[in-house]
Description:
The chain has helices at 4-14, 27-39, 50-59, 78-88, 96-103, 106-115, 130-141, 182-200, 220-235, 247-251, 253-259, 277-290, 316-329, and strands spanning 18-21, 43-47, 68-70, 121-124, 151-157, 168-172, 205-209, 240-245, 271-273, 294-301, 307-309. By secondary structure, the chain is an alpha/beta fold. The protein folds into two domains: 4-142 and 306-329, Rossmann fold, CATH 3.40.50.10950; 151-294, Isocitrate/Isopropylmalate dehydrogenase-like (Rossmann fold), CATH 3.40.50.10750. The radius of gyration is 21 Å and the shape is globular.
Amino acid sequence: MMDLLEEIRDRAKKSPKRIVLPEGEEERTIRATAEILKEGIAKIILLGEEIKIKDKAQSLKIDIGKIRIIEPKKSEKLEGYTNTYCEIRKEKGISKDEALSVMKEPLFYGVMMVKKGEGDGSVSGAIHTTAETIRPALQIIKTAPGVKKVSSSFLMILKDRKFGEDGALIFADCAILPSPNEEELADIAIASAKTVKDLMGCEPRVAMLSFSTKGSAKHKLVDEVVKATEIVKEKAPELLVDGELQVDAALIPEVASQKAPKSPIAGKANVLIFPDLNSANIGYKLVQRLAGTQAIGPILQGLARPVNDLSRGCSVEDIINLVAITSLQA
Length: 330
């Protein structure tokens, strides 16, 4: 049986998208580019100094063929991009010179390419922080209609396939919103359900997590999860969602039958929505490290066009997988 990541790559190959990699001079990015081209996963655009990229590829004995390379500082589009950025940021009182300086930066230039429809998505973060990767997206791409806040998720692929969707689960929000209110938690749930559809091609079954299951504990933190669940049901009545649920009730049918026998998703959730960033970040890293789980992400959710973030400790395979995921989001 083809595993989920192979499936994602295979689906991406059927309609290769133009994915911008702003960290074009970075070794892992160059290695990933060669593999992506070889497999036909996407059409890659590398940003950076052409001579540096080609010299690095040559020194690594890597053939990146006739790959498209753009040097933002020398680009013929630079003036137009600068004008657009000035218009977007006019309320901040940005000057033309300041805008020009910003648009010479590959991360900003790459996101502007996506904004202008000259790329279908952007992937970076191998040598930049999450904040540095997200900032251009928030300023230039902005959120999709009806979405107030960008969030993130991780695609978790477990060795034990009895959990989630044949071993695959979405965890959210593990990287962006520290302390979401009820409305934001509901938006995270709805955005994560879309991520499941985009990547896994199945019906989302969303569990709103807490330390309580169906009133087993009384606390304002529990009330917040209950309220968020109600908001999800109002905003997306077609969605299979339930809460509040403890994580064992969300994932294990035997526990669910005791704690939440009437729940439509208990024991079979494939989306876990954590109540805050503390629990989500700790949770995904525990599962990743102790269970030997693949954690792909953070996958950004709620943007009008796809921009995704890599971990600075990412491997070449991580870059390839996130490029394929970004292609499917596009």
